[in-house]
Amino acid sequence: MSFLSKFLPKKKPVEIKNNIPKEKNFIKKTFAVYCHAHHGTTGDKLCPKCTALLATVMTRMNRCRYGITKPICDRCEFTAQCFGERQAREFLTIMSSNRGRMYLKHPIMSIKHKFLSMGVDYARYEQQKKRDDKAKAKEKAAKGRSKEQKEKK
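Above: the chain's sequence. Below: its structure in token form.
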């Protein structure tokens, strides 16, 4: 530790935010907009099918394997394992088919959700890039070792 470290700003630890309540609120609003448009419901009421699927989604979100660091559900690679194939397909259909209506009904919430999904996509891209770099480094090291062995012979 140098004497200048006293004068430099301290590094703050990374804050882990609990995004589950925001995500639940967004999913509830998305289901409401979808159900009103496709099943003709009004007010806070949802049809029985949408209510059952929403209850399943909310229960599964509480049991998410990622905990509070979870990505948004419609970008998660484990959606099919969490909800089951049929329910995951229905959930993803509702979330993807409703984007335009959500931008009209709840624009700020939709934009925030879009930024979160872009963050998840970027994190996946970075993880894949690290994996590829590791694989290339291993491959390069293996070629270097094989060349050394050939030179020794």
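The radius of gyration is 23 Å.
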